[in-house]
Amino acid sequence: MMFAVLAISTATGPLTVNGQSVSTPNGHTNSSKQARKKPGNRATQRNAADWWKHAVVYEIYPRSYADSDNNGTGDLKGIIDHLDHLRALGVDAVWLTPMFPSPQVDFGYDVSDYQAVDPRYGNLADLDRLVAEGRKRGIKVVLDLVVNHSSDQHAWFRASRSSRTSPYREFYIWRDGKAAGQPPNNWTSIFGGSAWKFDPTTNQWYHHQFYPEQPDLNWRNPKVEKAMFDVARWWFDRGIYGFRLDAVDTMFEDPQLRDNPTLPEMDAYGEPRQRRIYNVLMPEMHAALQRLRRVTDQYPGRVLIGETWTSKPDELVAYYGPRNNELHMPMYLELTKMPALSASEFRSRIEAVENNSVGGWPTFALSNHDIHRAADRYTPPGMSSDDVAKLVGALLITLRGTPVLYYGEELGMLNNDPTRVEDVQDVIGRKGWPNEKGRDGERTPMQWDGSANAGFNNGTKPWLPVGPDYATRNVASEQADPNSVLNWYRALIRLRHEHPAFSGDYVSVNRNDPNVLGYLRVSSKGTALVLLNMSPQQAQVSLADADVKQVRSVRLARGAQHEASDVRLEPFGVFIAEVDRATAP
Ligand code: GLC
What we know:
about 575 residues
């Protein structure tokens, strides 16, 4: 049948469709169990210092993952209880967004103690147990180091604000106002309003890129650097495998505090937008990050992942460092900003990462706790969000580099945005309503099963409402459905771990097609073709345009059919096959 949507059967053997062998989710499960027993398999790879190049990293927002003590917010025990889900999915590392003690103004991104666990989430013993239970399952734990700012309740800031002569005064950025009642310059906070707050105790202003409760640390003070590097060492010594570094682009500010140029348009909070040339992407951060890399390199296998917003290729290159001596994995976040799927746009951005001049390792993310979920962003009205979820999953997991997968994406979860300002939890959503509704919608509880509150807890009102689709979109029901988004992700991740082509190069093919993104993954041990129809129309790709001589076996497909010299794809169809290349590399 033309344009058949491939039904993935639950049979354990290889499935044959039109004479082509197709791997099934269960087929992969079986083969992966066998593979793990042999030497040289994925488990062995994980022990190597470059484990992260073979890894799928999974982002967990602890408040929203699983609430073991039934108080409405998630916790570390909840994560431990669900490690087997992560094991079955095939992830190799979890990145926990901040679980340190915090007044929770920015839900943990306002840290009041970098060396402890917020009692809402558990305690250090729970974290140690998470590390140990993760290790048993081949899953490493990465924490989120909030380097730009602390909470205003951190002991450093409380001392700093107490007097101009406090030994901690220079841990933060204090200045006199321009005139009475006027901040030192025109900088606006990323979260709206002036980036300066007046503190009457000492009659000076302090700088905050984000909320006033998040005062910026002064990285020009070597004592700040030492204190933060000591924090990093302390966690490395405890078995933490690395950090996602929060908001690195704002670590430094212009020492002369020059005004930013303003733009004609307004931001969501009613202030003129600014070109943040004096308080974002200051070059000094690179030297500081390179010094942090030297600390990290003393601990074999530890990694630095960056929250790195880079609109220009040079900015990304700079984060790798001139000799690949800065961040191992600066996340390429530009794809999260793409308003629609477009093969041409995605192709050119992916190539910019692929061609970075220092040979830095690509790290891709399509969704996170600050961004509308990908299936939500990209599903046109009236079309299936599951089809789009499968397409974006195929992209993320089959690209060269390390994918960072946001929790719930493996279920095809959608945003559940607040409809009334009084329901909003995220402060920027209350300040910016209705232009900016905040980030609650992408942070709703993980959907585990069809019971009350989706199995997030035993019935207490969760801090955010569960998505309205939870009765069917949840781990338990998707596990049982061979065509689910969950089984698709499991099959994709197994394919990536087990097929040698996915350790190989990325070669762009079918380059002139505005609708179908095509690439080969090429290694000496095999080649795979990936075709992704990013359009809501049917499409057809000739194997010649894909540099393919013959298709050996279709490994995964959704809404795609191979016929003689063409592949036909339904809207958002995906075709992944083992192939022979037409031309020699
Ligand atoms: C990063 C985090 C975001 C947080 C901000 C301030 O962008 O991802 O959630 O609000 O930093 O820490």
